[in-house]
Amino acid sequence: xxxxxxxxxxxxxxxxxxxxxxxxxxxxxxxxxxxxxxxxxxxxxxxxxxxxxxxxxxxxxxxxxxxxxxxxxxxxxxxxxxxxxxxxxxxxxxxxxxxxxxxxxxxxxxxxxxxxxxxxxxxxxxxxxxxxxxxxxxxxxxxxxxxxxxxxxxxxxxxxxxxxxxxxxxxxxxxxxxxxxxxxxxxxxxxxxxxxxxxxxxxxxxxxxxxxxxxxxxxxxxxxxxxxxxxxxxxxxxxxxxxxxxxxxxxxxxxxxxxxxxxxxxxxxxxxxxxxxxxxxxxxxx
Length: 286
Fold this sequence. Notes:
globular, single chain, five-stranded mixed beta sheet, 12 strands, disordered N terminus, 31% helix
């Protein structure tokens, strides 16, 4: 015996055709904030600053939200006017793997400005793997080299089983190494050579190998490393990583937006889940 779908479930259609609900995939980086919204093809990519101009401050620093109200103001400025008047979005937020409860709490407080009906969080490394459409039935090492934070994560069956990070990134590179920097703005970076970032990655992976009493980290390393983040766009970094880790390094397509694209895929899956069909008809708000 089959049961006919409820009227609400029958009207619940895939994005971008579904008009009953809104979804946001959000990646809050120290340097850039990226967002994907249902019904839109492009990714919003903007500096992570409280306000544009000379008085701008950075509310997120090296994977830590240091100014929660400032983060909320930034999100409202970037996304608030893009939301439907009566809509309450389903929101999926990427988080630093080692951000912990404190980061998730601050992030959830900040995104309340967007009036979400549900907030789901996903480790950035898992979102990257989703964007790459990688087989997660085998152990996988994900390396994310961002502007001010570098993370290496071991995923086993899609779950985080080990992770390390260092407060270094492409934003710390010395002036002579800024092959992709913007010299017209005077953004000359710090004093860190690319080799220091890759050496830090090698140290983190070596520690993971030494402390892993199973074969998971070694199996993942033999499989190769999945590379994302802005650092993946720098040939000097990828070259040093391949030599230092002595394993293939596979760069995710469009690595700087991989995390938000993976979150968008998870968002679409969550939207299609039966539990998401019991939403009110936003075309006729009460």
